[in-house]
């Protein structure tokens, strides 16, 4: 089946259920599965669903390992606005993931390049990522790989565009959104054995169409996903509305 496979769902709740089904099956067959996890508003229904399934005894996260895609530079882990704080609030405190199994780049590390190398090494030592779950930014970024980023990059420090800082403003108490971040690279993401891209809401329709049916080009970082053999795109009807039937996409 050609990749990506597109699954169009009614709404974000249905999308969350489908992605959670995939995670539940993966963890059942591989209890120490390695997940790459996103932040942002898109995965919130998924984290709610995973928490519900944990409470219902359907998913045991005891041995699961996680790697977040990115973190702001300059924020101490756990400080407001940090992705570490976001993950603690929305997922880590709600399921039985062990703290030592949950990895997030340290944006407060004194030597950022060394931190990036350490993070790549940790992913390698974990045996690589089984399933990378991604959101998509309005300009097509995945993780914090902004337009123009080479598909060859691994974990690195980025300058975040003013547009992306503005879309992340909601998570901060003041206008003080950091200007740099650490992100896994596109090459790191493409090394994952399977990838799920989640997109919800009408504001993602245009970029999703460019990513899935435009040129495969660093100007739209998410277009790199079409180079991977096992990608599922879970989009609600609003986000999928500009996607025409095409040979490149398998419609479910
Ligand atoms: C941030 C994150 C991305 C995320 C994007 C989209 O920039 N670094 O990983 O995919 O936001 O966010 P949202 O889901 O809120 O639209």
Provide a quick synopsis of the model.
The protein is α/β, with parallel strands linked by helices and 252 residues long. The protein is 29% helix and 17% strand.
What does this structure look like?
It is built from seven helices and eleven strands. By secondary structure, it is α/β, with parallel strands linked by helices. It has one domain: Rossmann fold. β2, α2 and β3 form a beta-alpha-beta unit. α1 crosses α2. It is globular. It binds 2-amino-2-deoxy-6-O-phosphono-alpha-D-glucopyranose. 2-amino-2-deoxy-6-O-phosphono-alpha-D-glucopyranose binds next to loops.
Shape: globular
Estimate the mean pLDDT confidence: 95
Measured distance between first and last alpha carbons: 11 Å
**Spatial extent as radius of gyration:** 17 Å
Structural class estimated from helices and strands:
alpha/beta
Low-confidence stretches: none
Number of helices: 7
**Spatial strand arrangement across the major sheet:** 5-3-2-6-9-10-1-11
Largest sheet: 8 strands, parallel
CATH level-3 fold name: Rossmann fold
Q: Which sequence of SSEs, written as H and E, runs from N to C?
A: EHEHEEHEHEEHEHEHEE
Number of domains: 1
Mind telling me which CATH architecture this is?
Answer: 3-Layer(aba) Sandwich
Count of strand segments: 11
């Amino acid at each position: 089946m050609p990749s990506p496979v597109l699954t169009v769902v009614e709404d974000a709740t249905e999308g969350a259920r489908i992605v959670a089904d995939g995670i539940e099956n993966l963890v059942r067959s591989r209890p120490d599965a390695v997940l790459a996890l996103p932040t942002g508003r898109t995965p919130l229904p998924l984290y709610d669903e995973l928490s519900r399934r944990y409470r219902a005894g359907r998913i045991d996260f005891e041995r699961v390992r996680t790697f977040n895609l990115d973190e702001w530079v300059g924020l101490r882990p756990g400080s407001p606005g940090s992705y570490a704080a976001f993950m603690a609030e929305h997922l880590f405190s709600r399921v039985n993931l062990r703290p030592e199994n949950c990895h997030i780049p340290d944006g407060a590390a004194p030597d950022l390049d060394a931190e990036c190398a350490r993070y790549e090494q940790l992913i390698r030592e974990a045996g690589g990522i089984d399933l990378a779950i991604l959101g998509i930014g309005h300009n097509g970024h995945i993780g914090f790989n902004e337009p123009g980023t080479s598909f060859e990059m691994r974990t690195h420090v980025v300058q975040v565009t003013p547009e992306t800082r503005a879309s992340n403003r909601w998570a901060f108490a003041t206008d003080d959104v950091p200007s740099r971040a650490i992100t896994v690279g596109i090459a790191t993401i493409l090394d994952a054995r399977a990838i799920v891209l989640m997109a919800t809401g009408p504001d993602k329709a245009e970029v999703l169409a460019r990513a899935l049916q435009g040129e495969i080009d660093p100007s739209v970082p998410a277009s790199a996903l079409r180079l991977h053999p096992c990608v599922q795109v879970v989009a609600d009807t609003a986000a999928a509305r500009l996607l025409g039937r095409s040979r490149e996409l398998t419609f479910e």
